[in-house]
Amino acid sequence: MRIIQARSAEHVINRLQDDMVDSDFPSEKISALSMEYRRVYRLLRGPAPSVTTIARNSELDLELTRLGLRLELDHIQQAYEEGRISRNAAQKMRENVYLMQVDIEDYV
Alpha helices of the chain — where are they, by DSSP H? Predict the structure, then answer.
């Protein structure tokens, strides 16, 4: 499966290179997409990740998401204290973050 995916990514990279010359799309957009496919291609051509690596990365992703939501709550509080947002707006924003936190914990 990884070989087929790698070959598909390689094909897309080649097509994107061809399209850079004769395309209606901005070249910077094509280049950005090409870089993304190159990243995927390199990952697919390398060794398959172990179950331990996948689990470790999942845990790191979860911790980063939790940290991001805590930082978001801090920024909401700071904006409220500085008078940049109203009490009502701060409360609504906090509720949204709390819902995201609950969703994350339910996912685990």
Answer: 2-21, 27-45, 51-81, 87-107
- What's the 3-state SS for 27-47? HHHHHHHHHHHHHHHHHHHCC
Q: Write down the pTM of the prediction.
A: 0.51
**Residue 27 tokens, joined:** 């070249």
Residues 30-77 have pLDDT tens digits of 888 889 899 888 888 887 777 787 777 778 888 888 899 999 999 999
For 9, counting Cβ atoms within 10 Å of its Cβ (0-12 exposed, 13-18 middle, 19+ buried), the class is: buried
- Say if residues 82 and 75 touch (Cβ distance below 8 Å): no
**Cα–Cα distance measured from residue 46 to residue 30, given in angstroms and rounded to the nearest whole number:** 24
Backbone angles phi, psi at 24, to 5 degrees: -85, -15
